[in-house]
Design a protein that fits this description.
alpha/beta, two-stranded antiparallel ribbon, 5 helices, thymidine kinase activity, DNA synthesis, zinc
């Protein structure tokens, strides 16, 4: 785990809060959505009005370990561009964007919301399966007050995993899928050209299901 700031900004009541941007990066299956929801719920306890924005074409919540119970008391909306948010967030003090790499206007809108006094929490992949920056998402780093990069567990050798590896043959950047198309891997296993072990796609040879369940959260 890499933390580019000493800690996330302190949670205070809405009347004392200042606009800022928090970014949660990491590969697939690293717990980004879980961390985003955890932060939002803490702000909600402090009497903030919160909103979570999701990408409508992503249906991986069950696989990621995110149930409806996790968000049943939160204001969750779906949209394809964040420019639609302007009218929705007038009464909100916290705006959280999940899977932010899919929103082309995330950098502009996040900066606008923070300048308007909103607390903006972003959860996103930092890199593609080729280990290249995902769209313009890395432009958030110099704009953010807090940047955290989470690790997963390598689904081949079980070391710390900082990268996402595509299992399928698709070459498009945006291919939505879960463990059927991707796996979290370490540097060595990402660079390896050896065929994937048969049991690496689903479970370890030791059947360490508790570790796998923990890593199947993005």
């Amino acid at each position: 785990m890499l933390d580019f700031s000493s800690k996330a900004p302190k949670i205070v009541c809405p009347s004392q809060s200042k606009g800022h941007i928090q970014v949660i990066f990491g590969p697939m299956f690293s717990g980004k959505t879980t961390e985003l929801i955890r932060r939002v719920k803490k702000y909600q306890i402090a009497n903030h009005k919160c909103m979570i924005v999701r990408y409508p074409h992503n249906s991986r919540n069950k696989e990621r370990g995110v149930s409806e119970n996790d968000v049943h008391d939160l204001n969750v909306v779906s949209m394809t561009t964040l420019s639609e948010l302007k009218n929705e967030t007038e009464n909100c003090s916290v705006v959280a964007v999940d899977e932010a790499q899919f929103f082309p206007d995330v950098v502009i809108v996040a900066e606008e919301l923070a300048n308007d006094g909103k607390i903006v929490i972003i959860a996103a992949l930092d890199g593609t399966y080729l280990r290249q920056g995902f769209s313009n998402i890395l432009q958030l780093i110099p704009l953010a007050e807090s940047v955290l990069k989470l690790n997963s567990v390598c689904m081949i050798c079980f070391e710390d995993a900082s990268y996402t590896k595509r299992i399928g043959s698709e070459t498009e950047v945006e291919v939505i899928g879960g463990k059927d198309k991707y796996m979290a891997v370490c540097r060595s296993c990402h660079n390896s050209t050896s065929p994937l072990p048969q049991n690496s796609k689903h479970q370890s040879p030791c059947k360490v299901t508790t570790i796998q369940q923990a890593t199947q959260i993005c």
